[in-house]
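Budget justification note: compute hours in this period were largely spent on complex prediction jobs such as the one shown. Inputs:
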Amino acid sequence: MFEIKHTLCPSCSVGCGINVILDGEEIVGTFPYKRHPVNAGKNCLNGRNSIECCESKFEDIDSEKAIADASKEIKSCDSSEVSVICSGYDTIEEVEAIKNFAESNGFNIGFYSDDLKNVDDVASYDELAAAGKVFAIGDLLYENPLIGRRIVHAKQNDAKIYALSKNENAVTFNIADETSTSSVQEFLDKFAGEIDDSSVVVFNYVDEAGDLDKLESLSCKVLPVFSKPNTKGALGIVDPKSSDEMIELFDNTKLLLVFNDDITEDFDYDFGRISKIISFACCENDTTEIADIVVPVKSWLEQDGSFVNAMGDEQNFSSVIESDNLGIVEVIEELNK
Amino acid sequence: MSYVLAKSQNNEILEAGECGGAVTSILKYLLDEGLVDGVLALSPQDDVYDAFPVFVTDSEDLLKTAGSYHCAPTMIGDLVQKYFIDKKVAFTVKPCDMRAVEELITRHKINRDNIYMIGLNCGGTVSPVSGRKMIDLFYEANPDDVVSEEIDKGQFIIELADGSEEAVKIHDLENEGYGRRNNCQRCDVKIPRKANIACGNWGAEDGWTFIEINDEKGQELIDGAKKAGILETKSPSDAAVEGRSKVENIMIKMAKKNQDATYPTVSEMTEWSRCISCYACRDVCPICWCFENCELNKPYFKDEANIPPVPIAFQGVRLSHMSFSCVDCGQCDDVCPMDIPVSLIFDKLQKKYYDRTGYVAGVSDDIKPPLYSPEKTEL
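Corresponding output:
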């Protein structure tokens, strides 16, 4: 039976709504969610393609056996040599469960937030669109289009746009008054005199930790945009590690438990150095390829949950299809038995 | 072509539906008589700004679809071709829906024998997010308190939970950048005359639906619904027919004025310069039906290293391929993350094509699509 249901886009931290089209229990397409206040029915290609995760689910894995094998491995390892990786793809409820799981068992916990960190008083999307000056760090029009749209609106409201990107062909440059391919530090130094309280600095990367201090010390609002849907929510629960700290964690790990992420995408690291990797994942990725055990878990489409978007709004979503797999929270309950 | 005024004989539908509930009654007749497998109609979800198509197979559920949803600018044509190709289905159509369906019938993507098109006269639709903002700014009401809305006599009217109403002239709202979607403001097809019937309140007496019967199938529908005892009809007066025509002509005149004002203002290359080549406009377009076979998916059109995409390689190709068939539904504008006025650019070219050939997409009687090429049949 044809049916349309609301959900959230899991592609980045902007927090767009998306409708999925169902034919019975099968997701067959997306449909614009025009009532959603963040994106008004507009979704980027990543958002519309997000449903493709259903095409790479683990059909041949015995879930019960995988959980039993994982439990056996975890119990056979010294807790100080076990590291648990939580992710911005995990829901609020999952991050809390993962943190409790790690703490109660004495495991290390790793959480990588693109080398960005939480900022309490961030600019809202409306404030970005109404800014007098926008300092855009990263090709936001291309990489986070529904944030980019607010920069376009600011431009249409006569804001001056200053754009920094490592890519000299950045789309954001096409609407910018000033462009730069320098380092973040140089960019901020160059335009320091221009930044005032009508400005908003929006960024999706930094070069080094010092850039964050500089950004936080500015006399205007800032808006960090993360690459995963719930990084901001997870930052409120778990302290993040820098990429260097994550590498150090991997170096000291014999058993790595990865909850719903593809660590090979974020880190150029020889994961073969880690004795065992267990991946808890909803669909195939490069980490499940190298994992010793894969435990299939529910995707965001198959469970209720909540994500916190880049401007700090917590948004709930409901399951749109059924799944025989357990969610991460339920898997952890099984592992704790 | 002939006209009737119609009213539901079903009290629940009369209560829930607009102007006599004829549309819901006709859909119920189709379902109850087994003439269709189901009905595709808009149904509100979280609130009146949030409606999308549902597939109804039990006529009891039709009540949830009764009423008008101007803040739900959906497109039915591509859904029918993608998901209902093998079903007998009835659905309501605005003129742009009808035009899209007609273009798809021409391309053999929809079988006319399998469908009933119940047309709805249309003065335009409003985007839900900007509609809420508009109510917040120009009405003495909280957008959350609105239980229904309608467009009538040049006004956008909201009804609140306490039964009170507020109205603001659409002209005033549009002068402030709100009101109907931009494509609706310039749309000059107000009555869907390729639908089997076209329904609305223009020229109708209170409590009645004015129906224009456009073809034999439409006449059979009205006759059947009357025979089944769900519809009552009477002939409209000459004044009613004239009044309806007057409303239509005024709206067309306003649309043409808007076209003259907006077509010269758009600068294609400037707008395209922020295109991120996300294909949202192509994917939502009801006329673009090639899907996986689309040339734009071919490797020679993909240049990952070259960001931004060269506009002419995407927008330009698409413009040259299908703008002649653009039905100005505005779905491309709605989904563009960069707010490029895609439909304005495409509609502007369609009108140029019309000026030279007389072809109005989805309205003209041509049996083949514009620029038809035999190679297309291989796709």
